[in-house]
Amino acid sequence: MSHPPLQPIASLLIRRVFKWVILCVVCISSLQAWLNYRAIETNFNMAVADVARANLPLLSVAIWDIEPQTIQKQIAQILKNPSIAYVAITASTGQQFTGGDINRVASGQHMVFEIPAPADASTSVGKVEFVVDQTVLRKELLRSFIIIIIEVVILSVFIFVAVVAILRRDLEKPMRQLADFVKNLQANQLSTKLELKRIPENGYNEIDLVVDGFRTMQDSLQKHIANQDALVAERTSQLEAAMKSLKQLSITDGLTSCYNRLLFNERMPAEIQRAVRYQRQLSLVFCDIDFFKRINDEHGHAAGDQVLLTFAQSLAKELRVDVDWVVRYGGEEFIMVLPETKLIAALEVAERIRRQVERHLFIRMPDGKVLRVTASFGVSELLATDTVESLVHRADKWLYFAKSNGRNQVQPIDHLISAPAE
Fold first, then answer.
1. Most-buried pick from 89, 113, 184, 383 (CB within 10 A)?
2. Which domains does the chain have, with CATH numbers?
3. In 117-212, at which residue ranges do the beta strands (DSSP E only) sit?
4. Is the pLDDT of residue 112 over 80?
């Protein structure tokens, strides 16, 4: 998805500040120009009035003494003031004296002053009229306005530049650093702390609030991920335990806790391969409880289950830990797998178990009778050409031979005896 072009906050604020600066320049310049206009106009009128007050006494004496030349000299002196373009003096006797640019009379400002008598200020000896040159006033106003504009513009530019520099330094750069950090942050880098390069004397402000908020979010995400990882690890452990339990249930006989035939079929080929590869001995003991069907028929399956469980415990007592293993092959049949064991040693193990069962395996019935149990055993040793089927088949033949010859015995009695005929 395409994103609109980036508009930095600092640039937006700079544009807005610029607009407000221009507006302030216009307003302040206008106000100051109006105030200066009033001040200059007032000062201008006061200056003209001062000229009149300074020259009125001399004019009064010159008119009183009827000295036309002196009056003309005074008019010339007054006209030296650039603000006065034309002077007209009218004596009370009707005489009139003029000087200056008559063309300015129509366009200029007229100011009339009474000329008091030298001896009595309450009486007048004439009037003096000044025609003020407005161009001088306008030039002064224009000069003042230009100065104001220059001052305001310089001040505004200085403020604008200062504001721009401050915004870029204190806002745009930290926000850019924050944006780049967030943009480049990867899932495996959540522990990386956000550090902004800022001037320390700025104090704690909204940018610090954003940074602290982001750090808090990072900490929360890390805790959440850690909790999720722990939860996943716990669920994985539970699943592995459940799978292990299911696996154990799938390879274990539920009654006797011995391995079942499924595990035998999976594990036995590897046992034979290992024995052949390293030239080790391997023997099987095929066990069968004598007259087990009669026990079930006469005493019930509960008694039969008790016999199976007790018999399996007798077999387990002869197993070497982490070496030998026993399988309930089917019904009342069990197979003991004895790695690193020759035939003669396997026969001795089978004989010990047979005697143990004969002497100590009995079930006390509810009516007080004691049910004694015996078992028959067929033993075979691995040959170089053997497979799982041939090894089991040979042990099964010796078991059949033992049951056919009276039960409660181990076959072959002598390991040199040849295998029984089919």
1. 89
2. 9-142 (3.30.450.20), 189-251 (no CATH), 261-411 (3.30.70.270)
3. 124-132
4. yes
